Amino acid sequence: MDYRSSDPVGAADLTTGGLHIPGPRAEDRMPDTVSSAVKIVIVGGFGVGKTTMVGSVSEIRPLTTEETMTQAGIGVDDNYGSDTKTATTVAMDFGRISITEELVLYLFGTPGQERFWFLWNGLFEGALGAVVLIDTRRLEVSFDVIGRLEERGVPFVIANNAFPDGPSYPVDELRVALDLDPQVPIVECDARRRASSRDVLLTLMRYLHEMALQHV
């Protein structure tokens, strides 16, 4: 498969019916050295930092589908933290990051509001693994997310997005609270920081590699 031709952004400017469609910026184009790509999904409840993580780590302009939150969501959505959050993802976030000169990750952030979860089915298709972002102030919003991944057999790592007012728990306590298998990695992160988000993705890739070796 030619992953460069599958890049969501076109490789050149197009002119169609007199309408000029500009191509991508030079920095958004897929490097010629890339030979393979992996699809990763970033999941979690509302407001845990999925859009922030994709935006902080993506080497291209991230695609977002955020819409302004309205009164219509009151009583329907989990609007925890909506006093400071004014928009929410309604379809997906998309970004890309190079792991090596040959390998890139396509990042798909899922919507957190439960009424948009029907979109997850398409986003999970072809995903090699997932990052589950959690917020220790409300771990319960992660239960259904983790359950869906386990039902689909999608390997995942847990990334504890450290909020300033969030309680801190030992890893062993988090593992018990989330009912996780012993081998599932749990890491601390700050989704606002590129280096921290990158380290989460590297943890996932190492975990996937270890799992692959176990099945050789």
Question: How does the SSE layout of this entry go?
Answer:
Blueprint: E1 14-16, E2 19-21, E3 36-43, H1 50-57, E4 66-68, E5 87-89, E6 93-98, E7 103-109, H2 120-124, E8 129-134, H3 143-152, E9 156-161, H4 171-177, E10 186-189, H5 194-214
Parallel strand pairs: 3-7, 3-8, 8-9, 9-10
Antiparallel strand pairs: 1-2, 4-5, 6-7
Helix pairs in contact: 1-5
Keywords:
216 residues; alpha/beta; two-stranded antiparallel sheet
Structure notes:
The structure is a single chain. The protein has helices at 50-57, 120-124, 143-152, 171-177, 194-214, and strands spanning 14-16, 19-21, 36-43, 66-68, 87-89, 93-98, 103-109, 129-134, 156-161, 186-189. It is of the alpha/beta class and 216 residues long. The protein has a six-stranded mixed beta sheet with strand order 6-7-3-8-9-10, sandwiched between helices. It has a two-stranded antiparallel sheet with strand order 1-2. The longest helix has 21 residues, at 194-214.
Report the major sheet: 6 strands, mixed
State the distance separating the first and last CA atoms: 24 Å
Number of strands: 10
Spatial strand order of the main sheet: 6-7-3-8-9-10
Choose one word for the global shape.
globular
Proportion of β residues? Answer: 15-25%
Report the helical percentage: 10-25%
Question: Measured on Cα atoms, how large is the radius of gyration?
Answer: 18 Å
Average pLDDT for all residues: 80
- Return the string of H and E elements: EEEHEEEEHEHEHEH
Secondary structure category: alpha/beta
Weakly predicted, low-confidence segments? 67-77
Number of helices: 5
